Amino acid sequence: MPQGKPVSVPDDGLTTRQRRNRPLLIVHTGPGKGKSTAAFGMALRAWNQGWPVAVFQFVKSAKWRIGEERALRVLGESGEGGPVAWHKMGEGWSWLRRPGAEDDHAANAREGWAQIKRELAAETHRFYVLDEFTYPLKWGWLDLDDVVETLTGRPGDQHVVITGRDAPGRLVEAADLVTEMGKVKHPMDAGQKGQRGIEW
């Protein structure tokens, strides 16, 4: 895509404007750092356009105070840009489950997905971040057929960005834009834990 121009233009009957403004299903996956960070950067762009933004976090604890949440909440309440809704659907990193908590996490994921389906049907927002959404899919907590069908059939001009490792092949195939974040080096390889201002 030299200078942001497409390599080829399909014969789909759409005008350049219609094709340019087509809503996108976006997936950020892979083992590298930056999937959520990139999605929140896109959310900032959406907010700046005045679009209603919704963030659904699926495996991050409601107790965590992360920088992106604070920044987007403040911006959403500023009266400039678009409004921002933020939803936390989990109780913490689900691969660190407490015994007996698996059903609670699965129920939270199903409840979160049901809310997303309602909001997509009502065209409540124009930009959605489904953060760490690949994990409930990977663990079988959500029906992949239902997810793909809902996302590809969503009405209006709603953009959806999904983050998380190991995105299912069918989701990748259905998406319009897929970025795989690869890891070359990470401080954790040298025994360094995540730090304030970098990870949160």
Key terms:
single chain; 200 residues; alpha/beta; Rossmann fold; six-stranded parallel β-sheet; transferase; P-loop_NTPase; ATP binding; CblAdoTrfase_CobA; EC 2.5.1.17
What does this structure look like?
- 35% of the residues lie in helices and 18% in strands.
- It has 200 residues and is α/β, with parallel strands linked by helices.
- The chain has a six-stranded parallel beta sheet, with helices on both faces.
- Helix 3 (67-76) links the parallel strand 2 and strand 3.
- The two termini are 33 Å apart.
Itemize the secondary structure elements and their pairings.
Elements: H1 16-20, E1 25-29, H2 35-48, E2 53-61, H3 67-76, E3 84-90, H4 102-122, E4 127-131, H5 134-138, H6 144-152, E5 159-163, H7 169-174, E6 177-180
Parallel strand pairs: 1-5, 1-6, 2-3, 2-4, 4-5
Quick description:
The protein has 200 residues and is of the alpha/beta class.
- The global form is globular
The first-level CATH class name: Alpha Beta
Whole-number tally of structural domains: 1
What amount of the residues lies in strands? 15-25%
Q: Sheet bearing the most strands, described?
A: 6 strands, parallel
* Strand arrangement across the biggest beta sheet: 3-2-4-5-1-6
Order of helices and strands: HEHEHEHEHHEHE
Query: Remind me, CATH topology?
Result: Rossmann fold
Structural class: alpha/beta
Mean of pLDDT:
87
Q: What is the tally of helical segments?
A: 7
